[in-house]
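Students often ask why we bother predicting the structure of a whole assembly rather than each chain alone. The short answer is interfaces. A chain on its own may look different once its partners are present, and contacts between molecules only exist in the joint model. In this exercise we take two input lines together and write out one structure for the complete complex. Read the inputs first and try to guess which parts will touch.
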Amino acid sequence: MEFSLLYGLMLLLFATGLLITPFLGEKLKVANVFAHGIAILGSLAAVLCASFVFVNGAQAMKLPFQLTYMAFSVRVDTLSAYFLGIIGLVAAAASMYAIAYGKEYFKQRFILMAELYLAFILSMLLVVTVNHVFMFLVVWEVMSVTSFLLVGQENSQASTKAAYLYLVMTHVGTAFIMTAFLLLANSSGSMEFTALRVLGANEWTRNIVFLCSFIGFGMKAGIIPLHVWLPKAHPAAPTHVSALMSGVMLKTAIYGMARFYLEFLGIGPAWWGGMILLFAAISAVLGVLYAVVEHDIKSLLAYSSVENIGLILLGVGAGMVFMSSGLPVLAGLAWAAAFFHVFNHAVFKALLFFGAGAVVHATHTRDMEHHGGLIKVMPYTSVFFLIGSAAIAALPPFNGFVSEWLLFQSLFALPMALGGIGGKLVGAILISLLGLTGALAAACFVKAYGIMFLAKSRSALTEKAVEVPGLMLVPMGFMALLCLVLGVTAPKIMVLLHQVLVAFFPEGAIDGFASPQWFILGTAAQASGGLSLPVLGLVFVAGIIMAIIFYLYKGAGKTHVGETWTCGIIPNARMEYTATGFSGPIRRAFGKILRPRTMTVINANTSPYSGRRIVYEVHISHVVDELVYQPLNRYIVRLSQFMKEIQTGSVQLYIGYIMAVTVAVLIWSTRW
Amino acid sequence: MFLDNIMVLFVKALFLTVMAPLVAGLIKKCKAILQNRRGPGVFQLYFDIAKWLSKDSVISPTTSWIFKVAPFIYFACAVGAAGLSPLILFTGITVWPADLFMVLYLFVLSRFSLALASLDAGSAFGGMGGSREMYIAALVEPALLLTMLTVAFKAHSTNIMDMTVSVAGGAGGLSVIFAAAAFFIILLAETGRIPVDNPDTHLELTMVHEGMILEYSGRRLGLIVWASAIKQLVLIVIFSTLFLPWTPAIGGGASQIAWFVGKILLTAGGLALSETLANKMRLFKVPGFLAVAGLLALLAIVAGVD
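Now the answer. The structure tokens for the assembled complex follow.
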């Protein structure tokens, strides 16, 4: 079997889809099945490509068509293959989901959406496999533009605004990435990834390349303070696209960073890693705080993506600090934690977006305050969403727990790299912030699940809800299963990660996690033991058995039905806790950061004795907006005001400018 | 070897499960004596649990399977944590797959399941309890981790057995005193005691844990109460093993057992005393209280640098 054959098959499938779908114009149902079916096959071909590389080692090839400055060369090493596999897996699930979900868009330029969707997946698959700077920038741009158009798909005022914000931000990011790449290409004299190195370049170039790549990819990844587009753009897109954007598009930025920091830039000074750690911690904590107080389910998930990117970057940052301190063993552990979390987040975030989409599909609202009681009408969706929530809250035995544990371990070893009291304090504070993030994420998803699925329905919209069709349930079920499998078989995933990372580390440095015992996930940092999910499972099951024995000791007993106790009043849905109410204490405790503004409107015309009509609203002010973007905005407006006075539009004045400049240049050039 | 480990896990889990109501009863008795009351006997909780475990349940039609399953998960988490907890009485074991984060995340899982169940019945009391529980948990978690790190940094491991070995027999320095004070505050918060929560109240405005389980009755209530007692004992065991390290050495000899039991009793007495002396704190004063624990832990880390 040839690699080029598989890769070619993938390209061919997507090309077929892109070319034929427009001709299915009127037959929307056929187009729907065809386009998304092709997307499933193409994505599966990508997964096959990835597995091929993991079995047979890195592959490289050049496609026959060449342009000047633009060689279409492809190289898939294990790092590319890892991301390729993740994208393929999630995209296949999302495409299956889209067959059922896409029907909602039949009246809204459906063919265009399907085309863009195919191009979007293809561009992501290409981003992680191309081997040439120009080619990378082109597909990166295609990815940005197609996702921009998909964000604007619903054509509402909010989604258009979100889309344009996204377009501007992502292009600023691309400018930084371009700068980083061109500086690299300049110093290494080649445009091929395999030759891009800055070994000979001076410190300044290296630092500038680092900063540009961090800002550029950070913009795409949505680290705070560059995240403002993310929580607006991700929820605005159709759900299967949101799942892909949050689940895997953000990861292409992590791929870019990994290429730069593991391969191109080599080992850098410790402040590189330190800076990443700082922004990672800010993103994690602020991201989850905004998620907790959100009550639009898709925005909540988008903010939670900011948090998870923060977690991934904590691993990346720690890995870089360890590398600069000459501790490759620990660096391997930290990078493995980051990459493990990349996979995990892709899986559970896609699952949660699918679940949220199913709820929106059934109830036609994204506002949690209108949901409630869905567990009774959507039994399958509710189970899958619960698994996703448990995984993202890092509960054992799901996958989120394992990667968070690895992160804890890498941060725990930070004092070894930094040394002294300072090192211990930095390690301790980062770990406690990670703990805070975890606890807030748990609160956030208790809220999301509890308010959406439990208790009584809060509005007429949810009362009519029914379970979504099987085509939407199957991808959710598959992702939920993956959450469990990735958690339980963690030592096996570590073997895979060893393959991904081994090329970037000194000989034998990270062999520690390549040959684990099947039941225990050890780290080199630890003298003994490690994480053992089977043992945990064993004691847990013992506990369950004990509970059942005690429960049944005196027979099963009878269960009587009795209404919920509400002090003697007949309970109704208005007595239930709301999402806003649930997050109230957290909103207040972190008020310095969230700065909630509450507005209570009391209708004075209603009787003060028998229930006044009160409207209560809470708005969260975003610190970053107020500190960074609003001043920036004001500055730009002021600058353009000033420019307006110079740019009057009068031709004579412009000639005058030209004259003045010419005279100045003449004087300057003849002053010797 | 591996099987030995597993056996020890089960023995510990069973031992703490059986002893937990007794310790809870002791604390209650101590408190009663300190408050000039006679109070129920120390075995009263056993009778209560036995009574609940033989009673029928009343379940609201609003609830779903989450409400029915949650007590079992809550109980299993407590038993699991008991199995992984540090008991100095068992030694000679090298491979010990009991990691600190496994215990902590079992607590998170138990809290997650009970908080979901609290929302399930659709009552405002349950929601209030769940909301406050998650809020307090978010504040406790960073402080708890910092406190645990004071010991883990010394042991260079987050393995509970390594941590136990590293503190056993060691003299108490300034670092240990700070860490012990910090963990005692965490202990008050995590076991739902005054000043953070009040285990004896059913007053709507003050209850947290009691609010969450308000809808439970019969066998499930019995499981929850028992599990809470186990969780409390596990935390007391962690406190007395890792943060009161004045033990001759680890092992199962008579003197070790005496020291161990003595420290457990001391901690129980301390809890009763602090509950008698303190007042319930306003919910939004709790962050400051727990920040004290976090700062003490940071001081302990600084003081413990060698």
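Check your guess against this: The longest strand of chain A covers residues 59-67.
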